[in-house]
Amino acid sequence: MKDSYKIMIVDDDPHICEIVQAYCEREGFNCTYSHTGIEAMKLLASFNPDLIVLDVMLANENGIDWCRNARASTNAPILFLSSHEEDEVKIRALTDGGDDYVTKPFSPGVLMAKIKAHLRRVSSSRREQLLELPGLQLDFYAQSVNIGSKTVFLSKKEFSLLSYMAQNVNRVISVDTLFNLIWGMESLEDTRTVAVHISNLRKKIEDDPLHPERIITIRGAGYMLASS
Hints:
By secondary structure, the chain is of the alpha/beta class. It has helices at residues 14-26, 37-47, 63-70, 87-95, 108-128, 156-166, 175-182, 192-205, and strands spanning 6-10, 30-34, 51-55, 57-58, 61-62, 78-82, 100-103, 130-133, 136-139, 144-147, 150-153, 215-218, 222-225.
C-alpha cells in the first residue's frame, strides 16, 4: 500500500483528533483534521481526502447529516467514530453514506486496520479507473489528468471531453458529436462552447497551447487526441 493517502478527521474532541492523526502519520499517511462541520466542508474541497474519519455528534451539527451532504462532492470512504452504540444510529449512519462504524472508546489498532482495509479497496478501484496514454494519465476517480509529475484538475465538461477523446485516441471526432455527447441535444448552448472548452483544455495540458501537439484541430472535420 502506498504511503501518500490523505486522511481527514472530523471530530470536535481535539484529543481524539490528535490520537488518530498520530497513528495515521505513523503509517506514513498525510493527515489533517477539523472540529466543525462548516470548517470540514471547506477542508473537504481543498484537501480532497482519500478517507474520512467522522464523529456522529459534532458541535452544533449532526455528523450523519454532514456525511449525507458531503456525498455530493466525494466518494471517499467515510468511517464513523462515535460513542453512540444504538443500532438505529449505526443503521442511519451506514444508510446515509457511511462505509464503516467504530464505537468509542476504540482500539487504535483496530481503527487503523479498518482504515487500511478501506484504502486497499480504494487503491484497487483507482487502478481500474486509470487510462494511460503516452505522457498522459487520466484518473476517472479524481477527474484529473497526470502529466509527468504534475496533476491537473479539470472541470466536469473538460474531463468529459478529454476522456471521450482518450477512449478514441487518434480518431477524428466531429464538433457536433462532441457537443451532443457532452452537452446533449437539449442544451441551450451551441457548438461554439466545444471550441471554448478545447481551448481551456489546451491551456492545461499542452506545453504550448498556441501550437498544440496533443489535441489537434482537423479543419472541417473536428478534433483528434494524438497518442504521440
